[in-house]
Amino acid sequence: MTPKSQWGGTFVIRWQRCMRIQLGKTAAALEWAQRVTKCIRDHRSDWEQIGGIRLDQPRLFVSRLGVGHSIYWFADFASLNELDYWQKTMLSWKDYQALLGGIANLFVEGSLVDTLMDEVEYEPTS
């Protein structure tokens, strides 16, 4: 049985990470973020067995509007346990750890923000 959200509908947790790119570093920051995304997807055999995780995750976005640019990663999970497993698994990879070392001067210090969201079922009213 699929778990239900307190807000109705299927229980989906969306994880979002946002990081603000330093001025003049957009191309380098996007290239780094693409390498991180590829690394995570290349390791999917380490986490695909937990079921609810989509294999095309995380998805990478960049802001279009606003002052400066930010990158966003999104990933959906069926439970907090899946999210926890995914994050702990990533931290065990040496190639992922090496990529984290390449972050210096690409992003505004202190700008990393993680957000967890619950999906809310939408039923239009007539």
Briefly, what is this?
This protein is an alpha+beta fold.
Describe this structure in words.
29% of the residues lie in helices and 21% in strands. The chain has helices at residues 26-42, 80-91, 94-100, and strands at 13-20, 59-62, 70-77, 113-118.
What does the secondary structure layout of this molecule look like, with pairings?
Blueprint lengths: L12 E8 L5 H17 L16 E4 L7 E8 L2 H12 L2 H7 L12 E6 L8
Antiparallel strand pairs: 1-3, 1-4, 2-3
Main attributes?
alpha+beta; 126 residues; 4 strands; 3 helices; 29% helix
**Global Rg:** 16 Å
Q: What is the count of β-strands?
A: 4
Topology-level CATH name: Alpha-Beta Plaits
Task: Profile the largest sheet.
Answer: 4 strands, antiparallel
Look at the structure and give the CATH class. Alpha Beta
**Which percent range describes the beta-strand content?**
15-25%
Secondary-structure element pattern, one letter each: EHEEHHE
**Mean pLDDT reading:** 82
Low-confidence segments, given as residue ranges, are: none
Strands of the largest sheet, in order across it? 2-3-1-4
Shape verdict: globular
Structural class per helix/strand content? alpha+beta
Going by CATH, the architecture would be 2-Layer Sandwich
Whole-number tally of structural domains: 1
